[in-house]
Amino acid sequence: MEVNITRRDLETTKQETKESFSTFITKWRAKAAQMMSRPSEEEQLAMVVKNLMPVYHKYLFAQYFPNFEVLIAAGTQIEDAINNGIIKADDLPRFRKNIGSNSKATKISNIYKNDPYQLIAPIASVQVPQVPRCKREFHKLYMPMSQV
């Protein structure tokens, strides 16, 4: 029996409440390996981070991961911090309560808000090499900017 895994199957594979990070990554990558035409690694990384439990997503969603190895290292550090009691597993994102407002825009704006200073967490310090930029050259236009 051949199972045909689709992109949608990967997008809907979420980390369960009691599931460890490493178990989720193993399960997710096994599903991805069954696909005939896989999304790019960058798209796969975005899908994985999007489907993590909120406590993991809170620390990982704004970070750049060049490959799965770096994501797994960061996620494992968070998992260790949870197991050691440094981070609470039930540490859910904070929602702002708007009393008296029932509009759809208000509900959408309250979906996920984080403290921007918590994104700079010492848990997963990843060194990304900086590529030096070339010096920009400007040439004279020999005309006023209004004529350009």
Rounded mean pLDDT score: 77
Distance between the termini: 65 Å
Estimate the strand proportion. Answer: under 5%
Number of domain units: 1
Low-confidence stretches are 95-99, 106-113, 116-121
Q: What proportion of the residues is helical, as a percent range?
A: 25-40%
- Main beta sheet, described? none
Number of strand segments? 0
Describe the structure.
This protein is an all-alpha fold and 148 residues long. The chain has one domain. The protein is 39% helix and 0% strand. The chain is built from 6 helices and no strands. The chain has helices at 7-11, 21-33, 41-50, 54-60, 68-83, 104-109. The relative contact order is 0.12.
Labels describing this entry:
6 helices; single chain; 0% strand
Short note summarizing the structure:
This protein is an all-alpha fold. The chain has helices spanning 7-11, 21-33, 41-50, 54-60, 68-83, 104-109.
SSE diagram, text form:
Layout: H1 7-11, H2 21-33, H3 41-50, H4 54-60, H5 68-83, H6 104-109
